Amino acid sequence: MSQPQNPNADVLLSAQNLSVRFGGVLAVNNVSFDVKRGEVFTLIGPNGAGKTTVFNLISRIYTPTSGTIDFAAPGGQSGMLRLTDKAPHEIAKLGIARTFQNIELFEHATVLQNLLIGRHTHRRTGLWSEIFFTGKTRAAEIEAREKVEQVIELLDLQHHRESMVAGLPYGVRKVVELARALCTEPQLLLLDEPSSGLNVEETDDMAFWITDIKDELGITVLMVEHDMGLVSKVSDRVLAMSMGAELATGTPAEVQRDPGVIEAYLGSVDDVSSLRRENHPKSHTGASA
Amino acid sequence: MTAPVTDNAVLKLLNVESAYGPIKAIRGVSLQVRRGEIATVLGSNGAGKTTILKTISGIIDPRKGSIEFKGENITAQDPAHIVQQGLMHVPEGREVFPLLSVRDNLVMGAYTRKDRDGVARDIEAVFGYFPILRERAAQDAGLLSGGQQQMLAISRALMANPDLILLDEPSLGLSPKLTKEIFEIVVRINRERGTTILLVEQNANMALNASDYGYVLENGRIVMEDTCAHLREKDDIKEFYLGMKEEGVRADRRWKKKKNWR
Amino acid sequence: QSQGVSKDEIVLGSIQDLSGPLAGFGKQVRLGMILRVDELNEQGGLNGRKVKLLVEDSGYDPRRAVLAAQKLVNQDKIFAMVGHIGTAQNMATFPVLFPKNVINFFPVTAAREMYEPFHKLKYSFAATYYDQMRLAVPKMVKEKNAQKVCAMYQDDEFGLEVLRGAEEGLKSINMQMAEKTSYKRGATDFSSQMQKLASEKCDMVVMGTIIRETIGGIATARRLGFNPTFVGSSAAYTDLIHKLGGPAMNGLYATMTVQHPYLDEASQPIRFWATKYQTKFNEEPTVFSVYGYNAVDSFLRAASKAGNNLTTDSFIKAMDTMVIPSDIFGSAEMTFGPQKRLGNADSRMSQIQDGRWKVVSGYLNK
Amino acid sequence: MRFIFKTDYNQDIKLAKHGGHTFWYSALMVFMLTAPWLVDEYWLAQLTFVLIYAIVGLGLMLLAGFTGLFSLGHAAFLGVGAYTQAVMVNAGVPFPLALACAALLSAAVGMVVGLPALRVKGIYLGMATLAFGFIVEEVMARWEKVTGGNAGLHVHTPSLFGWELDSTTEFYGLCLLLCVGATLAIVNLMRSPTGRAFVAIRDSEISAQSMGIHIARYKTMSFALSAALAGLGGALYAHKIQFLSPEQFSIIQSIDLLLMVVIGGLGSIHGAFFGAIFLIVMPQMIAQAKDFLPPAIGQAAGLQGTVYGLVLVAFVLFEPMGLYGRWLKIRTYFQLFPFYRRGMFKRQKSFQKSDRLK
Amino acid sequence: MQLLQLLISGAAQGCIYGLIALGFVLIYKATETVSFAQGDLMMVGAFAGLAATTALGFPFWLGVISAIVAMMIFGFVLERLVVRPILGQPAFSIVMLTIGVGYVVRGLITMIPDVGTDTHTLPVPYAGQVLNIGTAVIAAEQLVVIGATAVLCALLFAMFKYSKLGIAMQASSQNQLAAYYMGIPVKRLNGLVWGLAAGVAAVAGLLLAPITFVHANMGFIGLKAFPAAVVGGFTSLPGAIVGGLIIGIVEALSGFYLPEGFKDIAPYIVVLLMLVLKPNGLFGEKLRKKV
Ligand SMILES: Nc1ncnc2c1ncn2[C@@H]1O[C@H](COP(=O)(O)OP(=O)(O)OP(=O)(O)O)[C@@H](O)[C@H]1O
Ligand SMILES: Nc1ncnc2c1ncn2[C@@H]1O[C@H](COP(=O)(O)OP(=O)(O)OP(=O)(O)O)[C@@H](O)[C@H]1O
Ligand SMILES: [Mg+2]
Ligand SMILES: [Mg+2]
């Protein structure tokens, strides 16, 4: 296996000339980008631009038609690992965790159990030790719980610790999914639309969390997001895609100013008052009175 | 042509209470939506907005209370029956038919309709709204991107040409441009066809501008209601739903969050 | 004192298939047994003891047979197991019966394991499939001057017994089985089997088959224009063959131990018996009804011989010198002894002629 | 209602969550240990069967209830275990060694079956295991030299250094011991990473994978463990029934096993036990009950099947969570006693979604 | 010549499997459950035909039609009574339910005094006739099966592909919740599906009756139809027929050319091979969840 040299010690993840085709659809078309250690890198783009597909390529759910993805070897070794040669379950072990656009939690388990599954890559016990539940297993379990509790506290999930995921509201599930990803103690965190379904205030919290994750935990974040407020608040760099191809790269402000991005993605300047009914109906008393 | 808002309520909820097993999700909600208007329900996560919509369309049976649609009591009726009365629900989380083609998904939207020509015309109309759907007409809906599925879910509801549409977070996962377009379409349909709309939306700014009347839901109870024009001016609404906070408040909150965190 | 015998009652158990593949037979065995038990009880019982017959359903499943046997032996405390159907089912219950000293009397299966290896609690009545075929096949070969004998058999212990008997019989006249082919119980398609036999140009086919498979196999052969002499065992000796199979079945030979009780049978005692059965249960009797009836009848003979003090030991003692004479159904005389636990090994040949079984030979004896 | 305040991680991990657990499970153990003196031989034999089937049920629960892989050929593993045990014990191998071999050989076969399971799910997996079951049954029937073929195989009583385990009581003791051991093993597994990985695979393969769970390995492991328990159960079954024939391990047996875990309650360890009790006791109850029915019905051919089917249908209709679900409700009812409200367990409408996509 | 006859016999038998498999595919496509009661419904259908033509004395064709109609009603009722109450539960519950229904149906038929435990023949006008194809022969009974299978398959295929009803059935199986949201009367459609499936089962039973006779256990042939459905892909109607043909022909050939015992397990070996090589069968769609 070729060991591509890391050209730049700062680069954590490097995608080169990625393309993937599904039948007639070229979902990702020759996209290249580098994610630097310690930054928040955001992918934006119209619906169907191929953002989620890029995530799926990184987590090896899809295999690229052409192109490569390299990841800085964990544990400070020099050199890059070729992700595209790895099996899907090996990705987490390397320190890449992700959330899903449509939320993929373990529905018939509690929040706590979901988070503990997140600790799977840190498993140290063997089958026999688990069957007899030896002291080692017990110690490992306690340690896993300590770690999980830290994440629960960070994300304010105490209240939901023992709830079944199936019964949680959409917004909480989003947070649980983030928590589960954090439990793997990743180097790189992939967030697919973390704020969708959250209201303004919750989006604010999300922004705080993402900043904390980056600053305090030192985790690099690669995210897909449509809420430009959040994007500007937390991202260091933004890559705009359209129809599978790269449209623009730069700081959030730069990208937002790009006419191509405005045309394809942002639309005209925010003035939603045009939606209002010209003649307001007169106020009426509600049925609840 | 603009359809006027009339005073008679198409949809009336009276003291509705729904629960999932022992957990009560909404507790005594009363609201009404008048013919031709766009009404919205605001509320934070888990407030029970989705539950209200599901209860209306018969997916959940309420414990108490009654629901009236166009003068008929539809409490705990079979969901299919309720749709046949002219009520369409765009559910949270898209819920497309993953293994049917995009076109067949649209055809299913028009299941209750008998007029073939009208259906064909409406398919063209939604293809006009969302050209990508025309492009993917023969593709399995399950393979669309998240946003594309959302477009499909909305289009599918339009296909039924209903009297009342329940919209649960229509902008979920849509690009800023499309979000705006979606609301324009919603408003247009309301104005042109006179379709009544009950809207649940996290993007309160959009919702409050597009709607005529709004309810605020907290912990399963309605705590405030008014015309959207008035709501837009209220300080609480501004702070909690529109995100127009003073810097001090924001920093305070940030600090509180941080304190918990080592 | 043995379990199951009290001052005024003898409790007998039986396990039948009442819901499985042989439910038709199981039901008839049960009715035959009931007929005899009722006759006895109406006459006041045996030495003042009425007989109580408990029948359990095994669904032709050995595991359920064991559970049923446990119930009968340990819960209902039966004195003897009578007329239990099925080879594997019987074998599976032996470990339940024997430690409790419960006799397995006249099981409705013609497998050698029902009396071999010797066990003092095993009694069997029917000529085994093995013996039937061992004696019938050489005789038929000679009679028909057959050159190539082949076999189609059911892929289970029953079919194998037929096959082994036939092979043994052929060996005695220095012949070999030219071709053999098997099928699984419940099979419906026999075309490849019959084609295989046809391509070998077999002129006699031994059928280790029961009912539907006998009919299906022969019908397929006739359709293919393949018309050897078919020879079946007593398992194929039932009126269903000609009733269901129609004229295509004419010419089939089968061995038999008791005669089918046709309602319009020429023999007056059989006709009388058959009518009685028909009146009581509102259905026509078959050979299986006769097996059930005979099993209970023979049990009663021995029990009566054992006298008032009926115990397992006294019953065995009575059986040690037991002779059961030939009955109205034409079964041969049965004799038992301290080491002889099979009544007899005799059977007769019969053939379907004009849609009805006809006896065509006397007893086949070694 | 009981509220438990957690002050220690150990509390979360502990098996007995509170005093009630300790008390009731101890009571159950005491009963099981004294059962030979409390119940008559017939019921002790049934109890032994229950324990044997519970072991098999635990295995199937692991596979179907926790990993979400439905096997329609589980009787094959039972058969492999049973025949291995019978052949080895008959050849004079000490029975503990034979037991171990039975479990291991079954596990090995389970791994082989696990292979197609890596690629197929749902109904296809059901069919793969069904096909496998038929093939194993055929092998048992055809490999006469070893299995005795359709003629069947008598199993000698287990013996260890000249000591024969022949009495009902002693064998019951053995089964009890193994059953408790198996239960502890599964309970332990389920509170460890492996057990959680199984549950993760059941709920969402894609996200299990993205959590670093090697799907293929864990599915194979689940098959192997499940088959090992079935093999162990099969070995005990061989001794209990003492006569083996291939048709005892047919599709009917496989379906019975599946019914056992479904009726017991999928996804709970209690369910395996409830199911085993049901599977053994139910036919006996029907047999007992029919003595009280008018003979025209009670003795009719087919009654047993009809009643069995009716009970099954009734279960699915009224208690889809199985016996364990019913038990939970009863328990909650008493715990809440004066405050119990009707409708508390009223099922909300539920909606099925394609599980072709998982 | 040998080979030709083998192929013809195999194909005829394969059509029987295909015919039964059609029922499985119908139910699976429309409700995403597997009905283990299909074989038993087939048996009941055959008994219904028997009752109509012998006990009631109807002329043959009238008897056949009334048996099919009666079975469709039976399917309806069955759905109403036992399937509908648990609609929405995981598919597996319904599988269990059908196993239970199979037991009950078989048990009840067995319980009919004087009829249930016996084997019967259904008198058909075309019984016993054979058709010569070159040197090979085929029975009229088999020919009828082949014809009926083709017609039924075409009809059902058209329904699922082109009619709104058929699409709606698939829609409800893929996402019941969304189907309700669309106003699709899921329950009524389900009733229809079960009615249709029972009707298909009745047709199979009636066509099979002259070949396998009518008896309470004739439904077990359904176990051979599973492999047919799997090989074809379980969601494809033409696949069921092709799968059936493959299974039938493999059976015939292995019965002739391979050692004893292979004929019985050949279908299952084919299934295992199929699942390893092409997990979704010959015509099954390749599915993958998009995340
Ligand atoms: N497995 C697949 N098969 C076929 N087409 C696919 C597949 N996955 C994705 N696509 C197509 O590729 C394109 C990109 O999809 P992707 O999910 O990456 O979009 P996205 O940028 O995440 O959009 P959104 O913001 O709406 O989620 C879409 O047009 C989609 O239909
Ligand atoms: N299936 C369920 N089982 C149990 N509880 C549930 C279930 N679905 C919702 N709930 C509970 O009902 C309450 C209301 O949920 P609902 O989904 O209506 O909230 P929402 O206002 O739509 O929130 P969101 O903005 O996140 O979509 C929540 O507290 C949630 O925990
Ligand atoms: Mg996306
Ligand atoms: Mg919601």
TrEMBL record, chain A:
GO terms for molecular function: ATP binding. It comes from the Bacteria. Residues 13-268 form the ABC transporter domain. Pfam families: ABC_tran, BCA_ABC_TP_C. The keyword ATP-binding applies. Keywords: ATP-binding, Cell membrane, Membrane, Nucleotide-binding, Transport. PANTHER family: ABC TRANSPORTER ATP-BINDING PROTEIN, CONSERVED COMPONENT OF ABC TRANSPORTER FOR NATURAL AMINO ACIDS-RELATED. This is ABC transporter ATP-binding protein.
Automatic annotation (TrEMBL), chain B:
Signal peptide: none annotated. Keywords: Amino-acid transport, ATP-binding, Cell membrane, Membrane, Nucleotide-binding, Transport. The keyword Iron does not apply. Residues 11-244 form the ABC transporter domain. InterPro entries: AAA+_ATPase (IPR003593), ABC_branched_ATPase_LivF/BraG (IPR030660), ABC_transporter-like_ATP-bd (IPR003439), ABC_transporter-like_CS (IPR017871), BCAA_Transport_ATP-bd_LivF (IPR052156), P-loop_NTPase (IPR027417). Belongs to the ABC transporter superfamily. This is ABC transporter ATP-binding protein.
TrEMBL record, chain D:
It is found in: Cell membrane. It holds the Pfam family BPD_transp_2. Keywords: Cell membrane, Membrane, Transmembrane, Transmembrane helix. It is a multi-pass membrane protein. The chain crosses the membrane at residues 21-39, 45-63, 70-89, 95-115, 122-143, 171-190, 258-281, 293-318. This is Branched-chain amino acid ABC transporter permease. It comes from Hydrogenophaga atypica.
TrEMBL record, chain E:
It is a multi-pass membrane protein. Signal peptide: none annotated. Coiled coil: none annotated. The chain crosses the membrane at residues 6-27, 34-52, 58-78, 90-113, 133-160, 192-213, 225-253, 265-283. It is found in: Cell membrane. The keyword Transferase does not apply. Keywords: Amino-acid transport, Cell membrane, Membrane, Transmembrane, Transmembrane helix, Transport. It holds the Pfam family BPD_transp_2. Belongs to the binding-protein-dependent transport system permease family. LivHM subfamily. This is Branched-chain amino acid ABC transporter permease. It comes from Hydrogenophaga defluvii.
